[in-house]
């Protein structure tokens, strides 16, 4: 078995298997004390060059293309010293809301705040239940808990990994106040039956669109279906700031007003506080970055879709499952998620080739220690639990090149070929793999 150190150093690990590596590293550790500053810098650079060849997300690639525009925008904000609730936020809120086919956009400090404030604005609180999924990032559920409500989980569709609306009825109780679908990985949840169910039962719908900026359902952008659409603008999302940021979108003027008030200490007029709010404003520096990036979003999403198509065409017959795209929606591939039986072994093999991967997400939320008090146990959401054992996300960002995709595909194929050979050897049959 490989040591944990070998896994951590990834591409260097093959050296570890050779005895000379031990000698080499032993020499290095004694040498480091006598190396000049220049030599130490060079050694560090060499090590970095050997680190991941293709990361899961490459933020440098995007930044280098936009650097002059971003620096100019940041400088303009600093020169003006108007650092919050100024022209940058107003412009971003207006443009992003219009992009989502909504009338109002309210910039907030994170996707988590967007969700919690949206729930609060809909008067959801202690004693209330919100139906959602466990195949998501913790923030979806955290927001429900933050307002004092209880999450009630339904399972996901085994192909899209998204909320299975057929299960909503059985999750309904007299305390249910809202449904919170998540457009996970960049694919729109099936909004028509979700909206019909919510309307039939007088429920609010809060969309978690944190991974789906620009995705559509029946031609309409996500974030425009429910009472409020909530987006994270965390730096690695399809549209990301340079730190923490988020936005709520809505077509309901009263809700927009309430969200705007809650995010700014419950205030509409300075030092007059109508409700207990929070400090969750989007700041001008982040908004300035977002204003530079916003015009590129569609083109970036198109690039992601092209990369996904290339991956899918080449991996369809190699792995257990590639992402599906339902005819009613578009996918903007915040993550490109495949399924394989021996997920951890594949991840390690790709790591050895210098390819970054991740799991979104390894433990379903209903089984997290933080959710113990809700009483969910293993086996209660079988699809979610099964999916979490096999999913793995491959590198995905707009600037990926055809060569990089080819490199990732070849590494996955190489691993699969090896696995098939091992399996066919184990069963005493000759592999029929080409
Ligand atoms: C599905 C989902 N919901 C909510 C969030 C929370 O967003 P933030 O990190 O901006 O608070 C994220 C962020 O990763 C997310 O992926």
Give a description of the structure.
This protein has helices at 4-9, 13-17, 19-31, 37-50, 59-80, 87-99, 111-121, 138-146, 168-171, 191-200, 253-263, 284-293, 297-315, 343-352, 382-390, 402-426; strands at 104-108, 129-133, 150-154, 176-179, 204-208, 216-217, 220-221, 228-232, 246-250, 267-269, 272-273, 336-339, 391-394. The protein contains 16 helices and 13 strands. It has a seven-stranded mixed beta sheet, with helices on both faces. A two-stranded antiparallel ribbon has the order 6-7. Strands 10-11 form a two-stranded antiparallel ribbon. The chain is globular, with a radius of gyration of 24 Å. It has 434 residues and is α/β, with parallel strands linked by helices. The protein has three domains: 4-50, no CATH class; 60-295, Aspartate Aminotransferase, domain 2 (3-Layer(aba) Sandwich); 296-426, Alpha-Beta Complex (Aspartate Aminotransferase, domain 1), CATH 3.90.1150. It binds pyridoxal-5'-phosphate. Pyridoxal-5'-phosphate is lined by residues 110-112, 136-137, 139-140, 182, 208, 210-211, 232, 234, 244, 246.
């Amino acid at each position: 078995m490989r040591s944990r150190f070998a896994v951590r150093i990834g591409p260097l690990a093959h050296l570890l298997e050779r005895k000379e590596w031990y000698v080499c590293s032993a020499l290095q550790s004694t040498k480091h004390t006598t190396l000049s500053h220049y030599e130490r810098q060079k050694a560090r650079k060499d090590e970095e060059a050997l680190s991941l060849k293709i990361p899961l997300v490459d933020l440098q690639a995007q930044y280098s293309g936009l650097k002059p525009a971003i620096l100019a925008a940041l400088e303009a904000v600093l020169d003006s010293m108007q650092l919050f609730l100024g022209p940058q936020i107003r412009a971003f809120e207006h443009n992003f809301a219009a992009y989502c086919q909504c009338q109002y956009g309210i910039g907030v400090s994170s996707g988590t705040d967007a969700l919690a404030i949206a729930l609060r604005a809909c008067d959801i609180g202690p004693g209330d239940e919100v139906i959602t999924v466990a195949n998501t990032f913790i923030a979806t559920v955290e927001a429900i808990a933050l307002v004092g409500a209880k999450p009630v989980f339904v399972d996901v569709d085994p192909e899209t990994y998204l909320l299975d609306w057929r299960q909503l009825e059985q999750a309904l109780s007299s305390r249910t106040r809202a449904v919170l679908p998540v457009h996970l990985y960049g694919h729109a949840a099936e909004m028509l039956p979700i909206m019909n169910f919510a309307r039939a039962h007088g429920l609010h719908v809060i969309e978690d669109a944190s991974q789906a900026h620009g995705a559509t359902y029946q031609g309409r952008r996500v974030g425009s279906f429910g009472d409020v659409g909530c987006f994270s603008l965390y730096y690695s999302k399809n549209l990301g700031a340079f730190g923490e940021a988020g936005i709520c979108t809505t077509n309901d003027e009263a809700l927009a007003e309430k969200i705007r008030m809650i995010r700014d200490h419950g205030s509409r007029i300075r030092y007059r506080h109508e409700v207990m709010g929070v400090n969750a404003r989007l700041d001008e520096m982040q908004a300035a970055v977002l204003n530079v990036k916003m015009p590129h979003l569609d083109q970036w999403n198109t690039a992601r879709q092209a990369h996904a198509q290339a991956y899918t065409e080449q991996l369809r017959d190699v792995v257990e499952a590639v992402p599906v795209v339902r005819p009613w929606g578009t996918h903007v591939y915040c993550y490109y998620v495949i399924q394989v039986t021996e997920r951890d072994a594949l991840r390690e093999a790709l790591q050895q080739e210098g390819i970054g991967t991740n799991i979104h997400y390894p433990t379903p939320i209903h089984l997290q220690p933080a959710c113990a008090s809700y009483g969910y146990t293993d086996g209660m959401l079988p699809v979610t639990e099964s999916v979490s054992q096999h999913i793995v996300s491959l590198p995905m960002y707009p600037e990926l090149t055809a060569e990089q995709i080819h490199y990732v595909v070849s590494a996955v194929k190489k691993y699969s070929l090896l696995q098939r050979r091992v399996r066919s050897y184990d069963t005493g049959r000759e592999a029929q793999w080409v």
